[in-house]
Amino acid sequence: MPLRRIGVPDDVAELAAFLLSDRARHVTLQSVAVDGGASL
User: Fold this and answer.
1) How many angstroms separate the CA atoms of 22 and 19, rounded?
2) 15 contacts: CB under 8 Å, gap ≥ 6
3) How big, in percent rounded to 5, are the helix, strand and coil portions of the chain?
4) Distance between CA atoms of 29 and 26, rounded to whole angstroms?
5) pLDDT given for residue 22 in this prediction
6) Spatial distance between the Cα atoms of 33 and 35, rounded to a whole number of angstroms
7) How far is 32 from 13, CA to CA, in rounded Å?
8) Distance between CA atoms of 40 and 27, rounded to whole angstroms?
9) What average pLDDT does the chain have?
10) What angle do CA 9, 16, 6 make, to 5 degrees?
11) Under a CB-based contact definition with an 8 Å cutoff, are residues 34 and 7 in contact?
């Protein structure tokens, strides 16, 4: 379901922080769309 708002740089920064954290240690070679659900 689209979020109906324009993304902000913090949205991308939060994803980057997650991917760089230990919580994402099992994530490999992914393409993640930070588009608020617009690509559904």
Assistant:
1) 8
2) 32, 34
3) 40, 0, 60
4) 10
5) 97
6) 6
7) 13
8) 22
9) 89
10) 30
11) yes
What pLDDT sits at residue 40?
Answer: 65
Contact present, 1 and 36 (Cβ < 8 Å) = no
What pLDDT digit, counting tens, does each position of 15-30 carry? 999 999 999 999 998 8
* Helix/strand/coil for 23: helix
Helices (H), the chain: 9-20
- Token pair 């993304």 is found at 7
